[in-house]
Amino acid sequence: MDDIFTKLEQILEDRKSAKASESYVASLYAKGLDEILKKIAEESAEVIMAAKDGDSDKITFEVADLYFHILVLLRHKDIEIAKIQDELLSRLGLSGLKEKANRNN
Fold first, then answer.
1. In Å, how far are 11, 39, 53, 85, 92 from 24, measured between CA atoms?
2. Which pLDDT does position 1 carry in this prediction?
3. Which residue segment(s) compose the domain that 62 sits in?
4. Whole-model pTM?
5. For 54-96, what is each residue's pLDDT tens digit?
6. Cβ-contact 50, 31 below 8 angstroms
7. How many domains is the chain partitioned into structurally?
8. Cα Rg for the chain, rounded, in angstroms?
9. In what helix (H) or strand (E) does residue 98 lie, and over which residues does it extend?
10. How remote is the C-alpha of 77 from its chain's centroid?
11. What CATH number is associated with residue 93?
């Protein structure tokens, strides 16, 4: 089975050519970066609230919304998911403390 993130990446790329009146994602692209970032902020807050409520199903739902809107941002900025995967792979086996210290160099 293909990776869901790769499938979504293609769908989100295709939405760039859709009419804003016919696609939620196309309408976000048309509204621009600030609207996409606003949605990410909203979804982040909803993840936090769901986590505080302790409902696993609600957390799952809200995290999926957050992931989706982050993927919209990546496509808007023409950043491929593979680049994020490569960054995460580069951190495997690296202490979080050491990785954080490396950012300051």
1. 12, 12, 28, 26, 35
2. 38
3. 4-103
4. 0.86
5. 999 999 999 999 999 999 999 999 999 999 999 989 888 877 6
6. no
7. 1
8. 16
9. helix 96-103
10. 12
11. 1.10.287.1080
